[in-house]
Amino acid sequence: MMKRKAINASVLAAMIAAHTGEAGAEDYRRNPFTLTYAGGITKNEPGQVNIHPVTYKLNGLEISANVYTPPNYDAKLRYPAIVVAHPNGGVKEQVAGLYAQRLAEKGYITIAADAAYQGASGGQPRNVDKPANRIEDIHGMADYITGYPGVDAARLGVLGICGGGGYSLAAAQTDKRFKSIATVSMFNSGRVRRNGYGDSQLDTILQRLRQAATARAKEMTSGDILYAGDANLTDEQIAKLPFELYRQGYEYYWKTHAHPGSTFKYTMSSLLDLMRWDATDQIELIDQPLLMIAGSKADSLYLTEDALAKATGTKDKELFKIDGATHIETYWVPKYVAAAMDKLTAFYARTL
Question: Does domain 2-351 have CATH number 3.40.50.1820?
């Protein structure tokens, strides 16, 4: 496994240099915390936002996380806190870290953790991607951060990005420690794995379920792990992908913001859980304030609109569209991140 990680790191580094040039990419190798986003912290300085790599146990697994503390942090004071859940395939050093750092600049203590079985967190086999795990990850971040020095547990929010947005909706249905919920470019992993993106694979649901069941049987009998979503595509293949989210996603994850812990692949047996799950199941249990942010040009916008319409348990809910933004552009384009942050800052100030 360590050998494979080393190979992945070298491949990603080569892709960064070959495809985007040293100036065009946010190179994780240049940041001591391996942060891939523009403006990522390079060292902790007095009076500034500081980053604190931490580990903690969750159901016997070691979870790797980064805690961000606000400027002039004083552990004797009381601060609101926000849990930030990363996208599918992402790690804490990418967009989740960007938003966590920006929120810390506004006075929040924030945490971004790698999902169990993913990134730098523990768990075997690697890249299991089950909804129950991802939801438990969010509860676990809440457990850890509410015990962090200076955190006011009564003022806890959650921000979920892409797949982390769908899982945050699920976690907040029952975890009323979260006083408000926000999502950016929410991705309903269950619906998409079941129906295909844009509901484009409705006619192959049962066939794909049989493939997933076969993959699980193989895991149990031989120990061989089959993976879906492996991402080793050429530029030409990427250009031919049918959806903008996927085309720009490959650009983001494999070129401009690549990280060796980040991968599109997941165990095929995970589909047994993913395909029977949906981020909007029981969503009416959300009675907290809900803000959902998405790009006006995102081909994933239908997922946010559907979830918001079904969230009938809260009267305090809003869809904020970032004019001109696609799904992936909300991850890193400065003007779109700024627009999202302006809205998030006002929302959390009001609700926490």
Answer: yes
Instruction: Give pLDDT tens digits for 284-300.
Output: 999 999 999 999 999 99
Cα distance between residue 197 and residue 207, in whole Å: 16
Residues 6+ apart with CB under 8 A from 165: 85, 183, 184, 185, 186, 187, 279, 292
The string of pLDDT tens digits covering residues 29-65 is 999 999 999 999 999 999 999 999 999 999 999 999 9
* Greatest extent of the chain over all pairs of C-alpha atoms, in Å: 58
Q: Which residues make Cβ contacts (< 8 Å) with residue 11, sequence separation at least 6?
A: none
Which helix or strand (DSSP H or E) is residue 137 part of?
Answer: helix 131-146
For 106-216, strand residue ranges (E) read 109-113, 151-161, 178-184
Domain boundaries, the chain: 2-351
* Interatomic CA distance for residues 275 and 290, integer angstroms: 25
Pick from 191, 181, 170, 138: nearest CA to 293: 181
CA 336 – CA 227 distance, rounded (Å): 33
The H or E element spanning position 301 is helix 301-310
